[in-house]
Amino acid sequence: MHAWLCENPVGVDALNWKELPTPTPQAGEVLIEIKAASLNFPDLLIVQNKYQMKPPLPFVPGSEYAGVVAAAGDGVTHLKVGDSVACLSGTGGFGTHTLAKAALCMPLPAGFSHVDAAAFIMIYATSWHALIDRAQLKAGETVLVLGAAGGVGTAAIQIAKAAGARVIAAASTDEKCALCRQIGADETLNYSQDAVPNAFRERIKALTDGKGPDVIYDPVGGDFAEPAFRSIAWRGRYLVVGFASGPIPNLPLNLPLLKGASLVGVFWGDFARREPKANAAMMAELAQWYGQGKIKPVIDRTMPMAELKAAYAHMGSRGVMGKLVMTNP
User: Cys-Cys crosslink for 73: which of 24, 25, 209, 280, Cβ 3.0 to 4.6 Å?
Assistant: First the structure.
């Protein structure tokens, strides 16, 4: 097998494409022949030693991937050689093969492409857990999605629309706003034109007839958080999803009080670990929604696995719309 090996986590340039022994699955594991792997923001942080999970060196990055079971260890009963699966294991995806715990693998129904599957679990699980579970989103409510043209943002638009909500999508270019409308957003807000804080707030006010959004989905953080929270509706729910812009905001705690609003943390990974039955039910429903055409990952582009460093550079340019996916022949 071959894989991108991180032996010194000082950044992307230190990754090396190496030939490695193909491992044998132990009890409870499967060997997966990787067909596609998506590039996520944590995949950048982990090779810079900036992610909360710090795997022992050396390791193969690539948190999310899809492929075919090539071998199964003892005790694996729900998967067999030849089955197509998707997996989010945190590492191992940027190669031709990897070992994964069978319990972490999502069996793929017929017709579920490996490219879509490699871009599916993280963004849809995060967005469903946020909007449906944590925010208890109801049909007819208004959702403001920040960073709406990114992976989790595009998933949030689709899930909110499937739940019957009205969606305002905020993104940084006209091209990104057009994509958001194409996948279902009712209104868009270009924050390169409606800059934070004042123009941004005025635009939110205008788009909600002064009421404000019922739910705000924020994977961005930084300078957007406070003006967005100041715009939230009475009894609104502010979903803290992540901090893609870098800085973690300091929100004045009088704002939740004055708005009767809730700050709601979204940590899908721990939800999956602590509430595995609820997570499994969620994933089964998401797979059904995919089959029904209600949701489909937005793929910015696919690139050969050998071009991983160029893919990292493209992600760093902030030009990605949806997900970047690496593929093996």
Answer: 25
